[in-house]
Amino acid sequence: MSNNIPENLKYTKTHEWARVESDGTVTLGITEHAQESLGDMVFVELPEVGKVIVAGKECGVVESVKSASDMYAPISGEVIAANEKVTATPALLNSDPQGEGWLVKVRPSNKSELDALMNAKTYGEFLASCEH
């Protein structure tokens, strides 16, 4: 398993990450662990710009050669950008899931939802507890 768990991200138990940007928007994606578990990505379906997503609810689909997996929103808000590079080249999720492979940017409706997410240390401990 990879130990690539950046400190500047917040994490969910369903292996999504959230990064607060300097302008107050939040970038979302799937973790290194998620892409390793899923394998080679072949298809990505993202919510459209303008759509309101809700924390804990399905907001997209990532599909690999092994399986399709729902993506769940770490926080609620309005989608202000969807990464067209990833929909055109799903393999970006394998090569750089926590960088160029980001999925959507949202304008959060309730920033306090970020407080419910795990920090890098807690997420690392969560991953370790899942491996028994």
Would you write up a description of this structure?
The strands form two sheets. The protein has a six-stranded antiparallel sheet. Strands 4-6-7 form a three-stranded antiparallel sheet. The two termini are 13 Å apart. Strand 6 and strand 7 form a beta hairpin. The chain is built from four helices and nine strands. The chain has helices spanning 32-38, 84-88, 92-95, 120-130, and strands spanning 10-11, 16-20, 26-30, 41-45, 52-53, 58-64, 68-72, 77-82, 104-108. The protein has a single domain (10-126), classed as RNA polymerase II/Efflux pump adaptor protein, barrel-sandwich hybrid domain (OB fold (Dihydrolipoamide Acetyltransferase, E2P), Beta Barrel).
Mean model confidence by pLDDT: 95
Secondary structure: helix percent = 10-25%
Low-confidence stretches: none
The CATH architecture category equals Beta Barrel
Q: Strand order, main sheet: write it out.
A: 1-2-3-9-8-5
What's the total helix number?
Answer: 4
Short précis:
By secondary structure, the chain is α+β, with helices and mostly antiparallel strands.
Can you give keywords for this protein?
132 residues, alpha+beta, three-stranded antiparallel sheet, 9 strands, 32% strand
What topology does this entry show?
Elements: E1 10-11, E2 16-20, E3 26-30, H1 32-38, E4 41-45, E5 52-53, E6 58-64, E7 68-72, E8 77-82, H2 84-88, H3 92-95, E9 104-108, H4 120-130
Antiparallel strand pairs: 1-2, 2-3, 3-9, 4-6, 5-8, 6-7, 8-9
